[in-house]
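Bug report (template v2)

What were you trying to do?
Predict the complex of my protein with magnesium ion.

What happened?
Run completed; filing so the output is reviewed.

Input:
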Amino acid sequence: MSIFKPTVLIDSIFDIDADFIKRHHLKALLLDVDNTLAIYQTREPVPGVMEWIETMRALGVDLHILSNAKPKRLTAFANQVHLPYFYMSLKPLPFKISKAVKKLGVEKQNVALVGDQLFTDILGGNLAGVQTVWVQYMQLEDGWTFQCKRRIETRFRKKYRR
Ligand SMILES: [Mg+2]
């Protein structure tokens, strides 16, 4: 299996429902923020996120934010959605992901890292040995490095969709 291949490819977090949780034997989710739960550069959860979090809670799924963002930026968001968080997680390095899994006290095969970036979220999750769920980013970021990355990602998404 390629370290660049997600366990599952979905459009958005809203594709994660009771059936999905059951099918993938998930007990906990580690959630990216930018372009996964919030539109890039906003600190607002996109409409429906709060309801989705409630649904996951009702199913007994343990939710944590795991972001590369600094604590100041992350705290504001995490407080809004009332979720615990791991900050500056240095994705795609696997160490902090593994540490988070240990802290959750669940087996790594019952954890999924959910994120929009192939070269940080998916690569990091795969290296840490958790399941990886790749969502489509919500909005294209500024800057040529991002545009370049997104173009490569689009190619991968097309390939994996087949
Ligand atoms: Mg992101």
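What did the reviewer find?
The longest helix spans residues 144-161. The chain has six helices and six strands.
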